[in-house]
Specification:
Oligomer: heterodimer
Number of helices of chain A: 18
Low-confidence stretches of chain B: 512-520
Mean pLDDT of chain B: 95
Number of strands of chain A: 8
Shape of chain A: globular
Number of helices of chain B: 16
Largest sheet of chain A: 4 strands, parallel
Radius of gyration of chain B: 27 Å
Strand order of the largest sheet of chain B: 15-14-20-19-18-16-17
Shape of chain B: elongated
Strand content of chain B: 15-25%
Radius of gyration of chain A: 22 Å
Distance between the termini of chain A: 35 Å
Structural class of chain B: alpha+beta
Order of helices and strands of chain A: HHHHEHHEHEHEHHEEHEHHEHHHHH
Largest sheet of chain B: 7 strands, mixed
Strand content of chain A: 5-15%
Helix content of chain B: 25-40%
Mean pLDDT of chain A: 95
Helix content of chain A: 40-55%
Low-confidence stretches of chain A: 417-423
Structural class of chain A: alpha/beta
Chain lengths: 423, 520
């Protein structure tokens, strides 16, 4: 089931070094790229059907085409490498094992969108990763792939690595821009959208590491080769981070569209012995949980996930078995989003803390059925009333547990869960 | 007239000014959109979420009104269940961690949280868990005291220090419900407009050390007036109250919007000049060291004037145009000279290019209009052979050194007619009380040539006569305010076209009026 499109060089020793990477095809596609017109590249990426791999799945080529024409300002590329969504661990592999794939992708993208400066916003906690990435960028400068004349062409490109300071919300694209600009990482109201008014007030494209990393393959092999993987509407491959209570958790590259349960069984080694499936978080902590029944029919692509009223998200799959206490899981979940709320908008700032305290109260055995109902109502009252979707990430997921596993909350309320509380 | 657009609010067509956001444009025609963080002088921030409105067929269908410009044909929904519920829910979130200490909060009565709770929320608290506790009564400097628990994090104060004073002392530290407004340790507010954050704060989080716990806002009478702290003439509210068995006392000045003069703000120094109106007032007549009735005092001054070989009338640049004219006429009738000498009120280099001016008087421009000489040379020449100096509101001790003042007062007898006691009046041989500007009506012209009218705000238990009336009692020829206005109109060219009955609230730009006429 596993494929090697993005991960082709992951297992090659020292593939993070430029000479090894080049031996295995890195930067080879640049001749072809520079022979094309920027607009042709955008069309080619559109044709590949590549969708944003940060979680939202917005078509990458289409995003690029939103850049205003004939504007006298510099265009920036910001590569989102904040990767902070719980259960998501895919971009870090690219950063450490094949950073030159990312750099090559950046060159392709910047040429296409006529940008001469790319920022890579990297999660602050990624110390190993930032070192590997910076070393690769230094190598690329030395080798002439970055700088005043990229690969000997009349094209200037600088890449700046900007480290975050530990805020999840800086993965939100406008908070990311604020953070690069040196301000507190708080999302901006949209419109204006970054493509029109982004970094330093200039048109800016923000793409995920994996989206950019997919470009060299698409340019080398053509859109059809990319579309050979995956489904019609969700083409290509994805780096899935499978974690939770399975025998072989890990990062696996798979084409989109595979049945979830088959992937859990055949790729991740299946459930632990004697345990049964209780639920699956399909794409990072913010995506609504799937019950075992729903997991039966869902496939790993944007459309199937949407049909099951959840989201594809970041490909961070968490498998939950019958030992998991869903109420405590929700406490953990809300506690994360509460902690990471930037504190800007009232509903998120005040509401998530309230939700957390209510869940804690329920776990202490002091809750009532009214508390469960209040929790559900608060999800509705907070969701989509804020500048960004951080609060929605919390409420959409929390609501799914409240709806699908309400009996577990009720068990705490009636005191029946006190024996489970030790879990 | 500005361009307008037609749009629909709750299905009803309204015509509003174009180019504005929904809050301002729709608010101007009397439809309120609730908001906490937006302020016209500070721009839209969009953090409170109280102004979310629906836009029918809009993409997105739900927008913050503060960040949304009016557009032709836009269908704004304010009364849908969805919008009402959002307003209700946001209020609930604002209040769950709020101490609800209205009984001891200075803001009570003029608090957006209270108003919006009554209007949009109105339910009992559903908080059954501990609220977030934060710090209280933090000294932020410049007389600003902050209560973090009452704060709704609207960031108006923060934006004020960044956008208006450009000093940036305030910031919001921490995230989530641990977020709070704070200063850097040891770096308190340090600007001359700091107390404006108290007015800007929509709730009781920013309080003034000077005002807190003094009065409930609903007892205060809020009378419009004009600050006399400098020549800018910032528009103010005089908030005053007569408590039972006590006199009418001013508790604070607050800035009043005048986009032509001061905008929404005023300086702290001017704000504190309310104290001069309350304290150290001259309330009775004095003949030498003896308290006397006003009638007795007036007689004594008239006698002094009639006996004087040569009198000089010293008029303060804080006097109104009417008062200046009255003094001028009196001088003409008794053959005295008028001087406006008051160099001590000019603090060279104090102006900051914003509101604060060098000249700490309200109507020096009036001297120019009426042709009153205010030079030191003119003053020196006038007193050369004079044997009587009558000061109208002018504190000569500010302009003359102690030795010079003593020499002068040995040489001639001095009379003070005015409202305040100070080191000059203490030495004057005759003193007559007059109403101050907070108790009187008058016209003044500010440093930019804008004519403004202030009206009596405070009525004392024993009101003093206005200065104009006092001048008349001393033998002046102007018998009524109406006569003063008529004579100003006929004798001052710049005032000829002014309709004193209808001076607009933003004043009249005297120098620019002709230009405006041509442009129109």
């Amino acid at each position: 089931m596993q494929v090697q499109v993005l991960s082709a060089r992951f297992e090659i020793p020292d593939a993070h070094k430029i000479e090894v990477a080049k031996e295995h095809g890195a930067y080879a596609t640049l001749d072809k790229v520079f022979a094309m017109q920027p607009e042709e590249i955008i069309e080619l990426v559109k044709a590949s059907g590549l969708r944003g791999r940060g979680g939202a799945g917005f078509p990458t080529g289409l995003k690029w085409s939103f850049l205003p024409k004939g504007v006298d300002k510099p265009v920036y590329l910001a590569v989102n490498s904040d990767e902070s969504e719980p259960a998501t661990f895919k971009d870090r592999y690219i950063l450490v094992r094949d950073p030159h794939m990312l750099i090559e992708g950046i060159i392709i993208c910047c040429y296409a969108i006529k940008s001469h400066h790319a920022y890579i916003y990297i999660r602050g906690e990624y110390t190993t990763q930032v070192k590997a990435l910076q070393a690769a960028i230094d190598e690329a400068y030395d080798a002439g792939y970055l700088g005043d004349s990229v690969a000997g062409r009349d094209f200037k490109l600088d890449v700046t690595v900007h480290r975050g300071a530990g805020a999840y919300v800086c993965g939100e694209e406008t908070a990311l821009l604020e953070s690069i600009e040196g301000r507190k990482g708080q999302p901006r109201s949209k419109p204006p959208f970054p493509a029109v008014e982004g970094l330093y007030g200039c048109p800016t494209i923000i793409n995920n590491v994996q989206s950019i990393g997919s470009l060299p393959f698409i340019l080398t092999n053509g859109p059809d080769a990319y579309k050979a993987y995956g489904t019609e509407k969700s083409p290509g491959t994805h780096l899935f981070g499978i974690s939770g209570l399975v025998k072989k958790p890990g990062m696996y590259e798979l084409p989109l569209g595979l049945p979830l349960l088959e992937v859990i069984d055949k790729v991740a080694g299946g459930m632990r012995d004697g345990r049964t499936l209780k639920g699956v978080i399909p794409g990072g902590s913010s995506t609504p949980v799937l019950t075992p029944e729903e997991a039966q029919t869902v496939t790993l692509d944007y459309e199937s996930m949407a049909a099951h009223k959840t989201m594809f998200g970041s490909g961070g799959i968490v498998v939950l078995d019958d030992t998991v206490d869903m109420v405590k899981l929700v406490e953990n979940l809300i506690s994360f989003y509460h902690h990471e709320s930037c504190g800007q908008c009232t509903p998120c700032r005040e509401g998530l803390g309230w939700m957390l305290k209510i869940v804690k109260k329920i776990i202490r055995g002091e809750g009532t059925v009214a508390d469960i109902d209040l929790l559900t109502e608060l999800c509705d009252n907070i969701e989509m009333k804020t500048v960004c979707v951080l609060s929605a990430a919390c409420t959409m997921s929390t609501r799914s547990y409240l709806n699908k596993f309400r009996h577990e909350f009720e068990a705490y309320v009636s005191g029946g869960a006190s024996s489970k509380a030790a879990m | 007239m500005a361009d307008t657009v037609k749009l629909f609010v709750n299905g009803q067509e309204v015509e509003v000014e174009s180019g504005k956001n929904l809050i301002d444009a729709i608010g101007a025609v009397g439809i309120e959109i609730p908001h906490l963080c937006y302020h016209p002088a500070l721009g839209a921030d969009g953090n409170c979420r109280m102004c979310l409105v629906g836009i029918e067929d809009g993409r997105p269908p739900l927008v913050p009104a503060c960040k949304t410009r009016v557009a032709e044909g836009m269908k704004v929904q304010l009364d849908t269940d969805k919008i009402k519920k959002i307003q209700h829910d946001v209020m609930e979130f604002e209040l769950i961690n709020h101490p609800v200490d209205c009984p001891i909060c200075d803001q009570a009565g003029e608090c957006k949280l209270q108003d919006y709770y009554m209007k949009y929320d109105g339910q009992k608290s559903r908080m059954t868990v501990k609220p977030v506790y934060k710090a209280k009564k933090l000294d932020f400097g410049c007389g600003v005291v902050h209560d973090q628990e009452r704060c709704v994090l609207c960031a108006r104060c923060v934006r004020f220090t960044r956008l208006i004073t450009k000093t940036g002392e305030l910031g919001i530290v921490n995230r989530t419900d641990a977020a709070r407004v704070n200063i850097f340790p040891g770096r308190p507010l340090n600007n001359r407009y700091a107390l404006n954050v108290v007015d800007l704060c929509p709730v009781g989080a920013m309080t003034s050390r000077d005002f807190r716990f003094k009065q409930r806002s609903w007892f205060l009478t809020k009378s419009p007036s004009i600050c006399h702290g400098c020549s800018k003439g910032c528009n103010i509210f005089i908030d005053h109250n007569r408590e039972k068995y006590k006199d009418d006392v001013i508790y604070r000045f607050r800035p009043r919007l005048n986009s032509q003069v001061n905008g929404y703000f005023m300086c702290d120094q001017g704000r504190m000049t309310y104290k001069l109106e309350n304290d150290n007032r001259l309330t009775t007549a004095w003949i030498a060291d003896r308290e006397a009735s006003v009638g007795e005092g007036v007689e004594a001054v008239r006698r002094a004037i009639s006996q004087a070989k040569k009198a000089v009338l010293l008029v303060s640049p804080n006097c109104s145009l009417e008062q200046m004219l009255a003094v001028q006429r009196l001088a003409a009738s008794i053959g005295a000279q008028v001087s406006g000498y008051s160099d001590g009120l000019i603090k060279q280099g104090d102006a900051d290019g914003y509101l604060i001016q060098d000249d700490k008087s309200a109507n020096r421009a009036g001297f120019a209009l009426l042709g009153i000489d205010a030079t030191k040379a003119g003053f020196d020449a006038a007193i050369q052979d004079a044997d009587l100096l009558v000061s109208f509101q002018s504190d000569l001790s500010l302009s003359l050194g102690e030795a010079d003042l003593t020499t002068l007062m040995e040489k001639m007898s001095t009379v003070y007619v005015g409202s305040y006691q100070n080191s000059f009046t203490a030495k004057a041989s005759l003193r007559l009380p007059a109403a101050s500007y907070s108790e009187d009506t008058g016209l003044i012209v500010n440093c930019d040539g804008i004519l403004q009218q202030y009206k009596a705000a405070v009525v004392k238990n024993s009101p003093a006569a206005g200065l104009g009336q006092m001048v008349q009692m001393l033998g002046g020829s102007i018998e009524s305010p109406a006569q003063a206005l008529a004579e100003l109109k006929s004798s001052v060219a710049a005032l000829q076209s002014v309709d004193f009955e209808q001076i607009p609230s933003e004043g009249i730009a005297l120098t620019a009026s002709e230009v405006a006429h041509v442009a129109a």
